[in-house]
Design goal:
Helices cover about 40% and strands about 20% of the residues.
Length: about 290
């Protein structure tokens, strides 16, 4: 999870690049994509995709989201849940990349109850006192019930779009705090959400009765759980409990600890690792190919 423990790893990553946090923040998402160029950053500005901001009616208000898809044809829908810093340019880049692979991607503003996106312009802002103060009350509103309700609204939105192939399943991917939201999405509409990928997900295995790992039996999805090595250091039992839960539920699940730190998949994260991110990306595409 994004706390002081992972902040230390981020500082080490920046030091190896010869950057401090201020210099890194000044690069922005586009600059970071160039610094850590990999196969996962390829669609921005160059692919034949169509995009727009959309408004989605939920039980709690109007959610703003970024909807991007191939310019022609119908395609499986995907719900993208951003990390703790919320919907911003970094996730628009990632959504475009996935759309270029043949998916209709809805990157949501999970904080819509309190603010339109972007709440923060970059992950680096989350590490400031001001950024954390902005996020704290918005984060509190994201109860399991709220996320489940939102997921139902997002599925309904996708199924109403002419660019979405409703004969195929919907996928979901999530990062950091968005990781468990993918599982809740699969449990919210099991007949539609058929694949869920969590990258350095936080709070996947807890003592709560509705812990994400306890929801797998309510789903009809296949899963990818890509775990950060420093998250595994603190909670080594997470991978074992996820495997037990998936096996007990009879759900296919790929569970792996990556040789990278929390945040490695997100292009504006100090921990971004292009090689590990590309591997995780390819494993997600393999999962989504079954939709």
């Amino acid at each position: 999870m994004c706390d002081e423990f992972t902040a230390g790893a981020e500082e080490a990553h920046l030091a190896r690049r010869g950057l401090n946090r201020r210099q890194f923040a000044a690069l922005g998402a586009a600059g970071m994509a160039l610094v850590g160029c990999s196969g996962t950053v390829k669609a921005d500005g160059g692919s034949d995709v169509s995009e727009k901001m959309v408004s989605i009616t939920t039980a709690d208000g109007i959610c703003d989201a970024f909807f991007v898809h191939p310019a022609k044809g119908t395609h499986p829908g995907v719900i993208l849940w951003p990390d703790i810093a919320g919907l911003r340019d970094a996730f628009k880049i990632m959504a475009r990349n996935l759309a270029a692979e043949g998916y209709a991607v809805l990157a949501v503003n999970q904080y819509y109850r309190g603010s339109p996106a972007p709440v923060l312009d970059s992950f680096s802002e989350w590490r400031t006192p001001e950024g954390q103060a902005k996020i704290a009350p918005l984060r509190e509103a994201l109860t399991p019930d709220a996320v489940t309700s939102d997921a139902k609204a997002f599925v309904a939105f996708l199924d109403q779009q002419e660019e979405v192939d409703i004969a195929r399943g919907i996928g979901s991917n999530g990062y950091c705090m968005g990781g468990p939201f993918t599982v809740r999405s699969a449990a919210a509409v099991p007949s539609r959400v058929k694949a869920a990928a969590s990258f350095h997900g936080a709070g996947m295995v807890t003592d709560a009765p509705d812990s994400p790992h306890r929801l797998l039996a309510r789903t009809q999805a296949g899963f990818l759980f890509a775990i950060a090595r420093n998250d595994d250091e603190r909670q080594p039992e997470q991978k074992t409990e996820l495997r037990k839960a998936a096996d007990a539920a009879g759900r296919p699940a790929e569970i792996e600890v990556y040789p990278a730190d929390h945040g490695w998949c997100v292009v504006d994260s100090p921990a971004y690792d292009p090689n590990a991110a590309d591997k995780a990306w390819q494993r997600m595409l393999a999962l989504f190919s079954g939709l």
